[in-house]
Structure formats: structure tokens, C-alpha cells
Amino acid sequence: MTLNDIWFAAIAVLFTGYFVLEGFDFGVGALLPYLPKEERERQVMIGAIGPGWDGDEVWLIAAGGVLLAAFPEWCATLFSGFYLPLLLILLALIVRGVAFEYRGKHNGRRWRRNWDRCLFWGSVVPAFLWGVVVGNIVRGIALDEKHEFVGTFWDLLNPFALLGGLTTLALFVTHGAVFLALKTRGRIRRKAKGVAEKSGVVAAVLAIAFLTWAQAMEGSFASVLLTVVAIGAWAAGMVANFFGREGRAFLGSAAALGAATISLFAALYPDVLPSTVGSENGLDIENAASTPKTLQIMTWVAVVFLPLVLLYQSWTYWAFRRRIGVRNVPASH
């Protein structure tokens, strides 16, 4: 195994961590207009993800930094070819972050209602577009011999990528509902469990279709096996949710998202961005990578700092592990 292989695996792990952790944040934001009946229940939902949402985004920042340093050609082509969807994702994340910070600065109903809309769209847009981006990475895009994107934005909206977008949106909504059932008390907990029962079935159908299509295009033995694991973990999680075992349900949905993400990277390997206008124009872990010296330096930096980041985030979730309910929220005036 070379350093190129190791850093490809590292990027897969970082995006897996991001989709698993930020996935339920997106799901909670998408459910914000539908589950709560009154303001304190909205605050319960926001409080469930409040301590960790910004830390979860660190996984995306780290993935982007590693991508740029370890595979600069991949990063450059990705950002030029996916400029508009990635820009929309970035803008949505900015709007969502501002909404978290500003929503509680004023007690006016209109003020909070507008920021709630920002939280909703700031969650739904990335949840959908990440699936579109990942779908196009697996499928490949139009690259010429200089590894430059020669297609159009509309080429990215192909049936496979759109199915990927619907799949990630449904998976994240269910993952968020399962998380709320685990993290809250009272009516929100009961409603979240009911939402997960229904959306979990929709997500399962979409995920099976998307992952099967992906494996048919690019699959290997390892990626097919991981797909089977993902489907099994999702089924186990939904059964646990039905019987009110919130902890097991969340572990199941998290394991399913993780296995599904890694299965797509395993199907892609050793390519990192295939070309649809000639396989020789595609990018792989060799022609997209930095110099061996750069990868060596990055490896030592990761060995030192990665455990610290993991310890800090683990402590954060442990410190805020208790359930919350409306009795933990002061009455609004």
C-alpha cells in the first residue's frame, strides 16, 4: 500500500465522518417546519444539534484541505466542474450557520420564522446537492485530455445524480429523525420516531436503487460487500426504531450511511474522477496526487493532530449526551 492509497482512504473516511455526523444535522433542519407545535419545541430541536453542528463541519473542512494537499489535480478539476453546485452548498451552509447564531437574538415571531426558513433551506439544499455531486463523481464527468471539464451544468443533472440527491436527502432526514428520537423527550421524540418509520422505507428504496446502480457501473467485490452491509445495517436500524430502541436505531442508521459512503469510494478506486469522454482522460490516485514528499509530510501531521481532533469531538458528544425536552427550555415571552 502506497501513500497515495492511504490518503485516498483518508479522504473516504473524512467524507464518511462528515455525512454521518452532519447528516443528522441536515435531517433535523429539514424537519424543523414539521415536527414542533410551538416555539419551545423548536428550541428543543435546535438545542439537540446546537452543541455539535459546527464541529461536525470540521470534517468537511478537513476533507477539503486534505483533498487540496494530497490530490491537487482532483481538487482543481472537481471545483471547476462542480463550481455551481459546490457554490450553492457553500452558500447554504453559510446561511444555515448565520441562522443558528442569529435566530435567538430577537424574540419576534417573524424574526424567528424567517431564520427557521434559512435553517430549513440551509439543510435541504446541501443534503440534496451532496448526493448529486457524489453521483457525478462515481458516474464520471466530461474531461478532456488536460483533465478539464468540457461539459455543462445541465450534464450534472443526469438521472443517476438526481437519484443520488434524492437518496442522500431521504437518508439524512431519516437519520435526523432517529437522532431526535434518541436525544429528546416528549412529543418531539414520539413524532420523530413516527417520521423515521415512514421516511426510513422511502430512503431504503431510494438507497437500494442508487447503490445497486452504482455497483453495476463501477462495482468491485469489496464495494458490493459494503453495499450489502449498508442495507443490512439500515434494516436493523429501522427495526430497532420501530421497537423504540433509539440507541440501536441511531447506530444502525449511522453504520448504514458510513458503509454506503465507503462502498462508493471503494467502487471508484483507483479512479478519483472518471471521464465520460475517454477513460484515458480520467483522474486516478497516481496522476492526481501530490509529490511523495508532500504526502510524507502530511502523514506525520495527521499522526500528531488527528487523535486530538477525535478526542475533542468525542468529548463534546459525551458532555452533551443527555436528552432534552421543553422543560429544559425557558418559556418564551
TrEMBL record:
GO BP terms: aerobic electron transport chain
Compartments, as annotated in UniProt: Cell membrane
Primary location: membrane
Keywords, comma-separated and alphabetical: Cell membrane, Electron transport, Heme, Iron, Membrane, Metal-binding, Transmembrane, Transmembrane helix, Transport
GO cellular-component term (any): cytochrome complex
Pfam family, one: Cyt_bd_oxida_II
An MF annotation (GO) of this entry: oxidoreductase activity, acting on diphenols and related substances as donors, oxygen as acceptor
Transmembrane segments: 6-35, 80-99, 119-142, 162-182, 194-214, 220-243, 250-269, 297-320
Domain of life (superkingdom): Bacteria
Bilayer topology term: Multi-pass membrane protein
Keyword NAD applies: no
Signal peptide: none
NCBIfam families for this protein: cydB (TIGR00203)
Record family assignment: Belongs to the cytochrome ubiquinol oxidase subunit 2 family.
Name of the featured protein: Cytochrome d ubiquinol oxidase subunit II
